[in-house]
Design a protein that fits this description.
- By secondary structure, the protein is mainly β.
- It is built from one helix and 13 strands; from the N terminus they run E-E-E-E-E-E-E-E-E-H-E-E-E-E.
- It has a single domain, classed as Neuraminidase, CATH 2.120.10.10.
- 2% of the residues lie in helices and 41% in strands.
- A four-stranded antiparallel β-sheet has the order 3-4-5-6, with no helix packed on it. A four-stranded antiparallel β-sheet has the order 7-8-9-10. It has a three-stranded antiparallel β-sheet with strand order 11-12-13, with no helix packed on it.
- The longest helix is centred in the middle third of the chain and has 4 residues.
């Protein structure tokens, strides 16, 4: 939190090159006067770039955030836009065997409801300096996985995923659904590759 800037959130990283014996930082990954980047997750591409995809707690935002490092995390690009909705919970990002960047996240505005969603983009698109407020690259794909319909206190969307040997993706999240309020549980989803949106 930036104490002098109205307690706005920003994303930091500490960097070690000796297996954690010593650390450099803090290094600012993302900071913006009108956005609130936090809870970032990182993916390293085969070409060496690192991309940090970030949650944004600004209530007026309608997409997620990303920043790119081309020097091993020492310095970072300005913030760029990512995805068709605000990443309202920590993204979980990695690479599929087919090369696309894939992430799951709690879905925010402009999507109504309480969804868990997935977003995919080719590496070449992930490395582009996409505008902070869109538009969404035409090569990107996304889907809504589930909606927490708990009428009292929905709580959902912190997730993880793994690609299975047959190419399907197994996703887990916590969700309240029809459980008592404040009693979320773990739910899993097996998503066959044929069910993923295609370009």
């Amino acid at each position: 939190f930036d104490e002098k800037g109205g307690w706005r959130q920003f994303q930091l990283v500490y960097r070690s090159t000796d297996n954690g014996k010593s650390w450099l930082g803090p290094i600012v990954v993302g900071k913006h006067p009108k956005r609130q980047p936090n809870e970032g997750d990182f993916v390293e591409l085969p070409t060496g770039e690192i991309i940090c995809y970030m949650r944004d707690d600004d209530p007026h935002a309608t997409n997620g955030l990303k920043a790119i490092s081309r020097d091993g995390g020492r310095t970072w690009s300005p913030l760029y836009g990512s995805g068709p909705w605000r990443y309202a919970g920590r993204p979980d990002v990695g690479l599929l065997s087919t090369g696309e960047v894939f992430l799951t996240t709690r879905v925010g505005a402009p999507q109504a409801g309480h969804h868990l969603g997935a977003y995919m983009e080719p590496q070449a698109i992930a490395l582009q300096p996409t505008p902070l407020n869109g538009p969404i690259p035409k090569e990107a794909r996304w889907l809504l996985i589930d909606n927490d319909t708990n009428p009292e206190r929905p709580d959902w969307g912190y997730s993880g995923w793994v690609e299975l040997p047959d190419g399907a993706i197994y996703v887990v999240q916590y969700i309240t659904a029809d459980a008592p309020a404040g009693k979320p549980f773990i739910r899993g989803y097996r998503i066959p590759r044929r069910c993923l949106p295609r370009r």
